[in-house]
Amino acid sequence: MTTNPQGIVDTLDFDTVVEADAQSGPKVTFYVPTEVQTTTAGRSAAILSNQLKTAAARLREEGLSEAATEAVLAPVRELTSDSTYWRQQSRGLVVFAAQDFFVATRIPIEVADAVIVADHFHVRPVVPVVENSGRTYVLALAKNSVRLFDATRNSIEQLPQGNIPEDFEDVIGELPEPQLQHRPIGGGQAAFHGHGGADETDTMLTQKFLRAVGEAVAKELGTARSQPLVLASVAEYLSTFKEVCPYPVIHDEVIAGNPEHTTPDDLRSAAWRKLSARSAAQEKAESEKALTQAHNGRGSFDLAEIAASAKEGRVDTLFLPRDEQRLSSPDASALADEAIIATVRASGSVRTWADWEWSADAIATFRY
Fold first, then answer.
1. Smallest Cα–Cα separation from 249: which of 216, 276, 227?
2. What does pTM read for this prediction?
3. Which pLDDT tens digit goes with each residue over 120-176?
4. Residue among 309, 298, 327, 285 at smallest CA distance from 133
């Protein structure tokens, strides 16, 4: 669980949801709109209470007894009465419930009020939260403050400082006295001149500061990582920082300005604006490769075929539109859930694209 401007955000253990989905019996998924402000806590709890009535009726339609229905829904019912929990929310809540399984996760994305009872959990709305491509580090670097964040498209968390210097003085300490030399000029007087100008000294100390921060950040993150790092600092720091920091994936654009008082959520938004052009280029390259494979028989545009292939472990990567409204029919939504769960179970990848130019509901590439 992390605290950030998106409220309380829980880590969604998607592998656990996938594992529970393999068990027999109906699965219930609740999506509850929530807000970070505590003033809406009662309204969100009331939404879930109403959803429970719908879920109970549908479970009985599925043939479950009153006792079995209550066993599935009891943990959810208990959650509705936890006033402390409802005062600590994010932008949305998803609850997965089945026989002997219950997970409630506060997520940093808006969701529509919905309760689904089906053979599989309704996981499509949370794919943008769990997909592995949507993360970046943000380093807010100012002389009075150094902060490192791990951010997704929808949330941001400040990481422990570790051995990263907290500020300029943490590296430089007491500024050195000016090194002055003198020469006699007669009359018992002397002329003093500096050994290196003030600008030169300031540049040297700034470089020392940037190097110390860069090396510490790389050590904390590990230099083999592929997650991009976006620097937020005065613009002139970027070129030097890229030279002295061993971390291999530093974005080539800076969030310019002094970030000392910039909020984490503003840093997150600015970072993703900087990364959007690169993300669009990556998505274009991915789409061209996926389309080529699908046209050559190494993939498919048909969601029913994709779902069936995923169950056989054949799907390498499943691509879906980020906008869930593109999956308008109930059949498409259910097939997407099946395909997502089966793909993840077989160690495949699931990706979402912001720009979706095709009439197909999904695209998949096959392993064989």
1. 227
2. 0.70
3. 999 999 998 877 556 899 999 999 999 999 998 777 889 999 999 999 999 987 555
4. 285
